[in-house]
Write a structure and sequence with these properties.
single chain; mainly beta; eleven-stranded antiparallel beta sheet; ten-stranded mixed beta sheet; about 15% helix; about 35% strand
């Protein structure tokens, strides 16, 4: 007879070496950490070697029987290390492992069913521990998916939880490295004047046969002098574990929110739009045109129609989807399409004889949720064939970019939109799946793998969206190329801040685990979307620059959904300067100071020249002073920096020690900073708000000559802003020249109007790399 039980903790590690039982304090160590087990107290303590700081106390593995062994360990992914392995009364184990090259303590579980019948595991609570940062808990914060909160006010976080001292940025990063079969969450509280962290893996239903033993999810914990670096290291570890190799991305146009031709658009207008993008915006980085909901056939029941293998005969694409895809590709763009892969409508007549395709609630009814429709049982071979068939068919129409919505339906859980912090979604409130030994999370991951296998490695899979139910957050990692990390634009009432809030707290995943998609950067002045009234106009040009500038400096996923042909030139100019993505490092300076950071630093040193851009963002509806010390930002506090304000198109006073601006309501300043030299240097370029990170490929100074190579866009005036004419001598720009053929290329020195600065403009009839020299005399 089935038993529904809760197993607290039993873990094991695959390891090598000799096992030796111990009855006194025992420790393991690597270059970062020391882990000591106190035999008498039956707990562990973890010390950060650099500074000899004990940062984890009362690390309590639940359910151990007191026997511990120390052994060598080996991982195909993380290399060699050493471990402490504890046994449990029912024959399982728990291990704590340090790998030589990793700054984290790895906690692994293996559970064993020592009974005579199959057990049904609802959740596990593997380990608890206390964080000691040598500060009062009232000064500390926890940052997780639910936001930046006091430890005793955090509702719980999916995948990761950072405990941090905002003043020093010292912090402990804990996170679930895997979410293969269960959904890992973490909870915080305050106990004995320390922050207490409790871990949990939610399964809903995890069936284990009699005598079976199985590994569960992996938890990692580490201490970092700067917790931002710790979060980035955590993302790197996930990428390593999942063997993630990110696909290149370009900016995307999505039809959904458009004030004209919104929703799915129409065949004729989408084809016209493709031509417009090719002529006006493709050279600046807009490479995908994605058709959204309302193109597909099927009955209208709970939410969108779900006949994704055929086109609505009364919709905007009477000739089918292939003609439009071909037109998009003929214009040099990638064709994208929206669908919901893991749900259908059980009421639709076409599923009358396929009711066994659907997951069932405990009462036997099809598992239907508001807007989500009815969850498919992804363990059913017939369903698997169907999902694979639909994916292949849509691809055969010519679409190489899938926007996959309503992904939570594949986890067979409730819709809890909008979801950030932990909420009870009653995971497990369904009957066993077709394959009863598959968990809901495992079935979901299998579904994503099915789509990848059906369409191949070149299909760009964009997930949408974790805020519908955060159960799809961790289990999607390694299986999608981008992920909407927040709800639809303004659906939380935060207007332009909706995506920025989530993109900021999850910034460390971007470019490591996937590309963070904060939803489209609206720039139109007025008007509401025909598809969604929540997406209205932005208003002033200053406000329109705010969100695109954030996306560009933070190097996240750029999307547009305004009707582009109707945008005035000054709004199109915003897109041109923000769509492309730099490949430097971008971090929020005040990540632990406020829920919505207002200062970002982007740095790129790949060409040997350090290029720095500081973004100051006023998200408030009143004027704010925003600033920081340069050392806090990550720059040198005793170094003088030349400064150039991109949107104001003017040099600023030299910066030393700090940077500050008084910003009007909902506005930004994007400032390039270049360390002062004794000769002229390029501080800023006009092509992109990153001001040289993308386009300035090389820069050298030799024999009073500044030379370099720039990547130009056809017809675009490329301006270099050069500072230092009054430093190391009174320099005068005497001659500017193109190296090699000058056909179709012009270079001009603009009249000098700014003390100590010069401007040079290059223009090319073709998009190409151009080398140039600027000769200076004293």
């Amino acid at each position: 007879m089935m038993k529904r039980i809760q197993i607290l903790l039993i873990v094991m590690l695959c390891s090598t070496g000799v096992f030796a039982a111990v009855k006194d304090n025992v420790l393991i160590t690597n270059d970062y950490l020391v882990v000591k087990y106190n035999f008498k107290a039956r707990d562990l303590e973890v010390t950060y070697k650099n500074g000899n700081k004990s940062f984890l106390k009362k690390v309590i593995p639940n359910g151990i029987d007191g026997t511990v062994t120390k052994t060598n360990a080996s991982s195909v992914i993380f290399g060699k290390g050493n471990a402490l392995i504890f046994t449990t009364a029912d024959g399982g184990s728990i291990s704590f492992t340090l790998y030589a090259a990793q700054p984290f303590l790895f906690v692994n579980q293996t559970i064993k069913n020592a009974g005579n019948g199959t057990v049904d595991i609802e959740k596990l609570n593997p380990v608890s521990f206390s964080v000691d940062l040598n500060q009062p808990t009232s000064r500390l914060k926890t940052l997780g998916t639910g936001g930046l909160l006091a430890a005793d006010k955090n509702p719980g976080s999916y995948v990761f939880l950072t405990t941090v001292d905002p003043v020093t940025r010292n912090g402990v990063v804990a996170g679930w490295l895997t979410n293969e079969k269960g959904s890992g969450v973490l909870f915080s509280g305050v106990k004995n004047n320390l922050v207490e962290i409790k871990t949990q893996i939610d399964y809903g239903r995890f069936r284990l046969a009699a005598g079976a033993k199985e590994a569960t999810e992996t938890l990692v914990i580490g201490y970092f002098a700067d917790a931002r670096i710790g979060e980035e290291k955590f993302a790197d570890a996930i990428a390593k574990q999942q063997r993630i190799k990110l696909m290149p991305r370009s900016a995307v146009y999505c039809t959904w929110y458009s004030e004209i031709n919104g929703g799915a658009g129409t065949e004729s207008e989408t084809i016209k739009l493709a031509g417009f993008i090719k002529d006006q915006l493709k050279p600046f980085g807009l490479g995908v045109l994605q058709i959204d909901d309302e193109w597909q056939a099927g009955g209208k029941y709970a939410g969108p129609r779900r006949g994704f293998d055929r086109v609505d005969p009364k919709g905007g694409y009477p000739d089918g989807m292939t003609k439009t895809a071909e037109a998009i590709k003929e214009n040099g763009l990638t064709a994208g399409i929206w669908w919901m892969p893991f749900s259908r409508n059980h009421q639709d007549p076409e599923y009358k004889d396929r009711q066994h395709w659907f997951a069932k609630r405990l009462n036997g009814k099809p598992y239907e949720t508001s807007w989500g429709g009815t969850s498919l049982d992804l363990t059913n071979p017939e369903v698997q064939n169907h999902v694979s068939y639909v994916a292949k068919k849509m691809q055969s129409w010519g679409y190489d970019y899938f926007k996959m919505d309503g992904l939570w339906t594949g986890t067979v859980t409730e819709q809890v939109y909008i979801n950030d912090g932990y909420k009870n979604d009653s995971i497990g409130n369904c009957q066993p799946l077709f394959n009863p030994f598959k968990t809901q999370i495992e079935a979901y991951r299998d579904g994503l793998k099915l789509i990848r296998n059906a369409t191949g490695k070149d299909m760009f899979l964009s997930g949408c969206c974790v805020s519908q139910n955060m159960r799809s957050f961790g289990p999607s990692m390694g299986l999608v190329n981008s992920m909407r990390i927040g709800p639809d634009f303004n659906h939380d009432g935060e207007s332009i801040r909706t995506g920025v809030i989530r993109a900021s707290r999850l910034y460390f995943l971007n470019g490591r685990v996937w590309w963070n998609d904060p939803d489209p950067s609206m720039i139109r002045e007025s008007g509401k979307s025909t598809a969604d009234g929540a997406a209205g106009g932005i208003g002033s040009l200053t406000r329109a620059r705010l969100l695109p500038s954030f996306v560009a400096v933070s190097a996240q996923f750029f999307l547009s959904s305004d009707w582009l042909p109707n945008l005035p030139s000054d709004r199109l100019e915003i897109m041109k300067r923000c769509m492309a993505s730099h490949t430097g490092t971008a971090r929020p300076v005040d990540a632990f100071d406020k829920s919505l950071p207002s200062i970002w630093l982007a740095t790129d040193k790949k060409t040997g020249t350090s290029r720095n851009v500081v973004g100051l963002y006023n998200w408030e509806t009143s004027t704010q002073k925003i600033g920081t010390t340069l050392s806090r930002a990550g720059l040198m506090d005793k170094t003088t920096y030349y400064a150039f304000d991109f949107w104001a198109n003017k040099p600023l006073r030299n910066m030393i020690g700090s940077i500050e601006g008084e910003l009007p309501a909902e506005s930004c300043q994007i400032i390039a900073l270049r360390a002062k030299s004794n000769h002229p240097v390029v501080v800023s370029t006009s092509q992109h708000v990153s001001q040289g990170m993308i386009d300035l490929l090389k820069e050298d100074w030799k024999n009073n000559t500044l030379s370099g190579t720039s990547k130009l866009i056809a017809g675009d005036s490329y301006e270099m802003r050069i500072a230092g004419l009054n430093d190391g001598g009174n320099w005068k720009l005497n001659k500017a020249a193109i190296v090699g053929s000058t056909e179709g290329i012009s270079i001009d020195i603009l009249p000098q109007s700014e003390k100590g600065w010069a401007r040079v403009v290059i223009k090319s009839k073709e998009s190409k790399q151009v080398s140039w020299t600027l000769k200076f005399i004293k």
